[in-house]
Write a structure and sequence with these properties.
This protein is α/β, with parallel strands linked by helices. The chain folds into two domains: 3-119, Nitrogenase molybdenum iron protein domain (Rossmann fold), CATH 3.40.50.1980; 130-234, Rossmann fold (3-Layer(aba) Sandwich). The protein contains ten helices and nine strands. The protein has a five-stranded mixed beta sheet with strand order 7-6-5-8-9, with no helix packed on it. Strands 2-1-3-4 form a four-stranded parallel beta sheet, with helices on both faces. Helix 4 packs antiparallel against helix 5.
Length: 236
Amino acid sequence: MRVVSLAPSATNVVAALDAADRLVGATTHCSADAPAVGGWLNPDYEAVADCDPDVVLTSDDLQADIRDDLRDRGFDVHHTEPATLDNVLASFAAIGAAVGLPERGERLEADCRERVDVVRAGAPDDRPVVYCEEWADPPMAAGNWVPDAVEAAGGRYPFVDAGERSREVDPAAVRDTDPGHAVVHICGTGEQTDADPAARWGLDAEVHVVDDSLLNQPSPRLVDGIEALARRLRDD
């Protein structure tokens, strides 16, 4: 199949399926050896058409209009909108099926679920509070699947319920929870950020700056992030 991916998460799922050779187009935000077809939120529809795809992959509510535009233009679009960790893991099999590799997709989902279960089984009884910051100005506590990721890694996350969108937080409310760890994963920066909530707000917390894809991206990178976070919490 000829696949165009308009979401970095979907591109990484396709790569994890060992199917990167099926990518005939991807956005400039994707890590793929494929022709660029514009950005994540501003793809070039004519460039997509030139790729002659069998399926176009999109993700997240922010791409819902793009999905609808492409379907109106006659493209077969597979859209994922995961909100929780379980949704993220289930999307791997769904994307596998969409690109013609259902068995690989099911195997990838099963392998990732097993990895998460192994991490969860080693969680300590005394769970530290973990604050995860997705944006610094204004300060945004990460939502969606991040609360689930923190729980799986062995922490407590009293800032946003799993499945809810990231939201602005009051520094005083964060201080009141007395977090032992602050994880900084500013969207779109990789690890290039000087945001430090502990220094800004006087928190007595260990600060971890991580690549944003480890927590922000609904792909196997999230499972890597859960494993990495668990190691940091248990080194405390």
